[in-house]
């Protein structure tokens, strides 16, 4: 089983990260804002794993972060630059460097 879990907002975010990652990582989509109950339900199977929150730099992303900080204070938050606003529109090399900074293994073609 994967040791790391990344929470993203949507399927497009997941696809972008899967292309860049060079290790098996569980990526869960919240599909936008989410209730505390639904979040707990979604993450119950992953309680023992390292949680990363990688959501957009916008109002909805911020709501999700606030919820995570309250419900899962140990989760590690990854941030895209405000200039790009969304994980989906962040350039691959920038995503790769953010993930690398969090000690994820990255496919070599994204490191050049």
Description:
This protein is an alpha/beta fold and 112 residues long. Helices cover 37% and strands 17% of the residues. The protein has one domain: Dna Topoisomerase Vi A Subunit, Chain: A, domain 2 (3-Layer(aba) Sandwich), CATH 3.40.1360.10. The chain is built from four helices and four strands; from the N terminus they run βαβαβαβα. A four-stranded parallel sheet has the order 2-1-3-4, with helices on both faces. The radius of gyration is 13 Å and the shape is globular.
Integer average pLDDT? 93
According to DSSP, the number of beta strands is 4
> Radius of gyration, Cα only, in angstroms?
13 Å
Proportion of residues in extended strands: 15-25%
Domain Toprim: 3-91
Pfam families: Toprim
InterPro entries: TOPRIM_dom (IPR006171)
Protein name: Toprim domain-containing protein
Topology:
Blueprint: E1 4-8, H1 11-20, E2 26-29, H2 36-43, E3 50-55, H3 59-71, E4 76-79, H4 92-101
Parallel strand pairs: 1-2, 1-3, 3-4
Features:
4-stranded parallel beta sheet, TOPRIM_dom, 4 helices, Toprim domain-containing protein, alpha/beta, 17% strand, Dna Topoisomerase Vi A Subunit, Chain: A, domain 2, single chain, 112 residues, 37% helix
Briefly, what is this?
The protein is an alpha/beta fold. The chain has four helices and four strands; from the N terminus they run E-H-E-H-E-H-E-H.
């Amino acid at each position: 089983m994967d040791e790391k879990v990344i929470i993203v907002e949507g399927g497009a975010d997941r696809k972008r990260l899967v292309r860049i990652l060079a290790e098996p990582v569980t990526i869960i989509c919240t599909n936008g804002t989410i209730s505390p109950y639904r979040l707990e339900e979604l993450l119950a199977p992953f309680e023992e794993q390292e949680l990363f929150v990688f959501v957009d730099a916008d109002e909805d992303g911020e709501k999700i972060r606030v919820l995570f900080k309250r419900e899962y204070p140990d989760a590690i938050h990854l941030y895209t630059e405000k200039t790009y606003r969304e994980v989906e529109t962040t350039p691959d090399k920038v995503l790769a460097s953010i993930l690398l900074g969090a000690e994820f293994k990255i496919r070599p073609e994204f490191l050049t």
